[in-house]
Structure formats: structure tokens, C-alpha cells
Amino acid sequence: MAVYTQVPAEEIDAFLTRYDAGRLVSAKGIAEGVENSNYLLETTGADGSGHRYILTLYEKRVDEADLPFFMDLLDHLGARGCLVPRFIADRSGQRLQQLAGRPACLIEFLTGISVTEPTPAQTRAAGAALGELHRAAEGFAGKRPNALDKAGWHDLARKCGADFDQIAPGLAARVTEELAYLDAHWPADLPRSVIHADLFPDNVLMLGDRVTGLIDFYFSCTDVRAYDLAITHSAWTFSHDGATFFGDRAKALGAGYAQAHGLTDAERAAFPVLCRGAALRFLLTRAYDWINTPADALVTRKDPLAYLRRLDFYANADAADLLGA
Amino acid sequence: MAVYTQVPAEEIDAFLTRYDAGRLVSAKGIAEGVENSNYLLETTGADGSGHRYILTLYEKRVDEADLPFFMDLLDHLGARGCLVPRFIADRSGQRLQQLAGRPACLIEFLTGISVTEPTPAQTRAAGAALGELHRAAEGFAGKRPNALDKAGWHDLARKCGADFDQIAPGLAARVTEELAYLDAHWPADLPRSVIHADLFPDNVLMLGDRVTGLIDFYFSCTDVRAYDLAITHSAWTFSHDGATFFGDRAKALGAGYAQAHGLTDAERAAFPVLCRGAALRFLLTRAYDWINTPADALVTRKDPLAYLRRLDFYANADAADLLGA
User: Which residues form a coiled coil (chains A, B) (predicted)?
Assistant: First the structure.
């Protein structure tokens, strides 16, 4: 959530000469994204009418070897009508560049704002956009393992160890117990596909009740498709602290997704387990960051217990509670 | 250089209804400014044609009581043709608002980029823009004391005390000696006016060799007018580390300033002393921040010695060296 690599404006202007993008007229470092450095650029445009772009420099958290997967995915989705920011090729066809010693890409800018307190109508639109994404992803040949799958959760839990109990007494035991439950109940043969894996309201651009963009695909990977809806459910249907479940949003999410894609009976039956997995995944990454970030750091630590509350809710819910009848 | 106060997009959209600004279509937190939180907004515009604004929330470093001074100054300068970002009044005429518990203002967005390695032509344009600012400032009634005047330097030096020598051996004695020199030689009766007091390349927006905006007036105050040119000189005419003086830029700065305003003989005679003061002022604030910022903090510490090198240069220069014959 900061600009880690400062790039002189002159260098950005020179960089843009590789593209049919016109000359730079404004460059602002923006506080956004998963530990990348991002600039919002304005250029004269190839035709002088003005154009905006996002310039992303990849810092250590994104592996350069994964970038072709993300680029090909967004090309595939964009060609099938999904509102996703495409990576822009330079005049020689190159999308991945180097700038200020970092891998760097010029990316489409999309308008829209990210809501903080989604309404049911907005949640329905997000559900529909996720369904459309899953439909458009069919036939995409790229594969990328999910580093935060169940094996990844076990890994994170081991790294946190006894430190969980610094966050809340008894949390270490609760995590161990939940992992055992998920090992026993995680569905083995549900349809898999490319998933977004991080479709929080932050990553959905909207104008009013309309989705104008899905962004930040840097967690996208190949995994159980309905698990993507479970992640989205955990992100859109609770108060931020996880203490309040909004049934109206959840019903709207389910209806929006069903309109564009829908769940099989097996997916629906497994949905509460998938939601428990989603809640545990964010509980674990937040707990890991909590334990490893000094309390006085400039980075805001997100409360892991907000996901423990969701986990508790999911452990006592059935599919009808979570998605409507 | 971060967004300290996160404002939900819905709140920004609601905030904009006070203005004739249209509806919000994009909001990006930008990493800019003197410890304020800044958002680059795009709206539909009152007429639907699209418009951009800067939304600034004032954090602790800017005193709310100073905001009317800054607002009136930019109105005064803007009305006299200076390219400065004006504070925008809402429909009731109010410019200072509250948002997310902070004083907040909607401000004009100006295009242009900040150069990192100015050319002589760009430095000349910056000098001319400073001269025009000084001309336009004539007749401005507002007053604001300079907290970083000579008394302020003594204050900072006392606070740093023996810690200077952590930065470089002998630095404490060097600062004491320089303060004594400046106490004895600081000019008493040069013309005073409102000055920008921080006209680094960061704070000048340009397109090519043309200035499109002067920004970040939050250090502006009433002080010796030619001292503003000395600050600008220290910021534009050296390599970043202070090791190299660029005579061609310095000559261009002096020529640009002379074209728009000019120095009196007394100002020119005092110019080397004013430059020593400018170099000491940035040496002191950087040293204070260096001593008080942990080495591993996310904030980049700026090297105080880059200004010690400038100070050493100025101590051996005359006005002709610094501004051309």
C-alpha cells in the first residue's frame, strides 16, 4: 500500500516511447495493490485525446515467472467480455518490461470505485461478475497452483505455532482442530478452474450498482471453482469485524452468481465447508502478518479475529443459510 | 508519502454532493505531499464531461489554523495568473470541510510532471515561475511567520545536540560555527514577502520545458524574498548528493528569475549568505529526521550530508559563481 520503487518522471516518459501511448502529462504514485508499486499515468494518447494507464512495478511478493500466466489470463477474459484490465503490448508486442530495475507492465486503467459497505444490489452484481468470470475462464489453458491451498494453510499454521495464542488464547488449538476438520471434509472432486481467489470489494470497481472492473488478479490460480465463491462470500457478506452476517447480501450474492454461472448440487452441498476453508485461509494469512509485523509499523495490521468470527459462523451454517433457499 | 486516513469511496461520493462537481467515478489514494492524505478523484463533472480533483485530508503536520492563509494565498496568486492549484468552494462558499474526522479540502488538479534531473531550460522556467510568483504576491495581505527561520534553526540544532556526530564526526561543531556565522551575517533589511519556501523540483509541474503548476504551498510564509530564490537554488542546481554543482543550471535559474522579477543589488550581494542559510535549513531538518527516524522505518530518510556538501560549496562562492555574472 505504498510506492516502493520511485521512478523519475523522465524515465516513465522515456519508457512510454516504446508504446503507442503518447507523451506523459501526469504521473502519480498510488497507494494500492499487493505490495507492488503502482503509478496512475496520464498521457496525451496516441491521437492527442488523453489516455490513462496504470504502470505497475513488481516488487518481491509477485514472482516474475507468474506474470505470463496473469497476462494470458486477462487477455483470455478480456476477449470474452470480462471487464478486466489488460496488459498493454509495446510496438514490438512485448508486455513484460524492465523499469528502474524491476519487472514492469503498462496496464489498462478502468474507472469505477470500490465500495466499502456493499448493498445487496452491489453484492448481487459482484456475484454475477464472478459467475461471468468463471464462464469466461472455461477453455483457458494456463495453470497456476494455489500457494494458499490446504497444504499452504498447514504450512502457515506450523509457522505461527504457539504464537497464535498471543492473538487470542486458545487460537492455536482452534486452528489445529479446524485443519483436521477440513482434512477430513474438504471436497475431493468438485470442478476446478482458474479462480480469482481474492475478490474482495477492494478488487471490484463499480459505478452505482454496476461492475465496471475486476482487478488485482495476482492471487489467481487453479483451484476448486466454487471455493472462489466461498472467498467472495466471506469478503462481501459480513461486517468488517465478522460479527454480523448480512443474509440479504448473501442471498443476493448467490442469486447473482446463479444468474451467470450457478453451482452444481455437489458444490452447493460442499459450500459450508468451502466457506470454512476461505475463512481459515484469511485467518491464517492475517495471523501470520499480525505475528510478523511490529505493532508500530506503518502498515496497518488486519485483525485475524474478524475471520475467526466468520469461521465460527460458517461452522454452524448450512447452504441455505449461506446462499438462500 | 502515504495515505494515512482511509476514506471509503461512498463517503467521498457523498462529500462531493456539497460541490458542483458531479459524481465520483474514480478515487485513488496518492503517495504525495507533506504528511497529508491525498486522493486523486475523477468525477463526471458538473456537465458530464469528466473532471479531476485532488482531495486532501490534513494530518497532524499541517495546522488547521494555517489553512485560511494558504487558501487566500492561492486565490490571490491564481487570480494574478500564477498556475497554482486553487481550493474549491462548495455551493455555500465553504472551502474548508471535515471528512473522516479530518480537516479536508477539494483542490484543483493540475497536469504536469515533476522532473528529477532538471535541464538548464527547465531550471530557467522554474526561476521565471518563482519570479512571477513573487510579482503576483505583491499586495497579498496575509502573514505567516516562518517556523524554520534562523531562530527555528537554532532550536533544531539544540534538539539534535551531540547526536549530529552520529551522522558525521564533527558535524555538531560545524553547525554551531555556521549558526554563529549566519547570526553575524544574516541580512537585516532585505525586502520581505510571501515566499513558497520549498520550491523543489517535486513541487513544480512541467510539460517539457514549460511550467504547468507550482504546488505544495504548505511551507509558504513571510520571509526574506530572495531567500526563496536561495532555497530554489539549493534544490535545483546540484546533483542530489550535493557533490556536483551545475553552473549551467544556476545561470539559467538566475536568468529566469531576473526575467520575471530580479534581485536588487543588496539581495545579490547577500545571496551567498542566503544560500548558506538555505543549505543549513535543509541540513537541519534532514538531520533531525535522520536522528528521529529508525533506520528500518518505511519512510525513506534523506541524507543530511547532501546539504552539508551544498553548505561547503556556498561557503566558498560569490554571487557571480551562483547566479552568473
Answer: none
Domain extent listing, chain B: 9-108, 120-323
C-alpha cell, A108: 489498462
Spatial neighbors of B145 by CB under 8 A, at least 6 apart, are: B221, B222
A51-66 average pLDDT score:
91
Q: Which of the listed CATH numbers 3.30.930.10, 3.40.50.150, 3.30.450.20, 3.90.1200.10 matches domain A120-323?
A: 3.90.1200.10
First vs last C-alpha separation in chain A: 39
* Amino acid in position B175: V
CB atoms within 10 A of CB B264: 12
Instruction: Kindly report the CATH class assigned to B9-108.
Output: alpha beta
Across the interface, of B2, B29, B111, the residue whose CB is closest to A26 is: B111
Find where cell 507533506 sits. Answer: B34
Q: Mean pLDDT over residues A111-126, rounded?
A: 97
Select from B8, B42, B113 the Cβ nearest to the Cβ of A24. Answer: B113
Please indicate whether, in this complex, the C-beta atoms of A2 and B298 are within 8 angstroms of each other. yes
Chain B interface disruption, residue of A11, A30, A54, A113, most B CBs within 10 A: A113
Q: What is the three-class DSSP state of A27?
A: strand
Is B32 a residue whose pLDDT tops 80? no
- Cβ–Cβ of B28/A26 closer than 8 Å? no
Tell me the pLDDT tens digit for each residue of A245-282: 999 999 999 999 999 999 999 999 999 999 999 999 99
Instruction: Give the span between the Cα atoms of A99 and A18, in whole angstroms.
Output: 12
Report the C-alpha gap between B71 and B92 in whole angstroms.
16
Q: What is the DSSP letter of B79?
A: H
How far is A12 from A320, CA to CA, in rounded Å? 52
Nearest to A10 among B1, B25, B116 (CB): B116
Give ipTM to 2 decimals: 0.89
The alpha-carbon gap from B188 to the nearest alpha carbon of chain A, in Å, equals 39
Minimal C-alpha gap between A92 and chain B (Å)? 26
CA distance B31 to chain A (A): 5
